[in-house]
Amino acid sequence: MHTRHIAQRLADALADTPVVLLNGARQTGKSTLAQTLAEPGSRRYLTLDDPAVLAAARHDPAGFIQGLSGPVVLDEVQRAPEIFLPIKAAVDRDRTPGRFLLTGSANVLLLPQMADSLAGRMEILSLWPLSSAERSDQPAQNRAEWLVDGGPERAGTLPCPRPALIDTLVRGGFPEATQRTTAGRRRAWFDSYLQAVMQRDVQDLARVEQLQALPSLLQLLALRSGGLLNFAELSRASGLQQTTLKRYFALLETLFLVHRLLPWERNAGKRLVKTPKVYLPDSGLLAHLTGQDAASLDNALGLPGALIETWVLTELLKHLAFSDRGLTLWHYRTQAGQEVDFVLETRQGALTGIEVKAAVSLGANDFKGLRHLQETEPERFRRGYVLYAGQEVVAFGSGLWGVPLGMWWGFGGPDPH
């Protein structure tokens, strides 16, 4: 079993917070991680996937919570959002840290049945599929913080062999999918996974009149991963009315099957009204839905930019999940078309720009978007990187660097901290 880099942050949260919610898609390893904290005699484990437990929680939520003593794990809490009010009442009577460790395969704060957010009583952590560093059993060195702190400026060679990159892209990070040894067995896993989520979790959360439209919508979104989210265009392509489309998109978002990345804007009030980008949250799932496998990628002249960009997005999210620095992630795009794939922002407003290229070599033109951001925001901009499929860390002017994509699974230079 791979060590999860968020484990220490989870332990820290349980040490001083009454309720901790571990959120993430199905099959990311939430239950496994939670059960490691449910050693005999230390923390009771109950899952709402058990019909008897679910029936008790739904029939008498207050009685169910009152009947629990000591620290407890409640798995798959999105199936009974009614229990959040009784949890609030229990915590208000006794604020012992770590009383409740909850896990959810849907973003419970987005559920319409959610009666209380437990503000001030609950810390929410996100468990994404395995990162490349977790898969290769690397220590919990935070790559997002390393980029922000200028780590690449002190790094040496970071090998990024094409076979290893291709394997990383098509396997993704879902623990069971990564263990499948052939493309056919991975396809079978992803097919079963999507079927289970669509037929079970979707029906648990919402009444969907056109259930068959959801897999088709997810396929359309896969073909647009890394692109701007355009509901009008999606409506035409899917044949769904925009009101229905937006409701279905929100459902996929609640189930962590798509991720919306908001744009960075100097005026924070404008960030919510500008166009976001849309991504699938796992490169293996994206490769599956777009019909790409190791053989097809190996035979291609180059690697798909959207697939690599999606993978980098997921790596950033995974490392941000166990960072305690308050970093936020955005994309950058101007009306004139200047863009930067990703922007990391510190609490103090300092910016680190990240571009993603599938090529093994770089040129000055690859830094055009980063230079625009650097010149437009000189007081905020700290450094910019183009992540590429080569192996050398190279400088491209003041504050601009080319960094191999191999940084996500190993370091060839000094310790990043």
Task: Based on the model shown, name its key terms.
417 residues; alpha/beta; five-stranded parallel sheet; 16% strand; disordered C terminus
3D structure, described in words:
The strands form three sheets. Strands 9-10-11-12-14-13 form a six-stranded mixed sheet, sandwiched between helices. With 417 residues, it is α/β, with parallel strands linked by helices. The protein starts with 6 loop residues before the first helix and ends in a 13-residue tail after the last strand. Helix content is 38%, strand content 16%. It is built from 17 helices and 14 strands.
Low-confidence stretches: 412-417
Largest sheet: 6 strands, mixed
What Rg, in angstroms, do the CA atoms define?
22 Å
Largest beta sheet: what is the strand line-up?
9-10-11-12-14-13
Q: What proportion strand?
A: 15-25%
Structure class: alpha/beta
Helix content: 25-40%
Compute the number of helices: 17
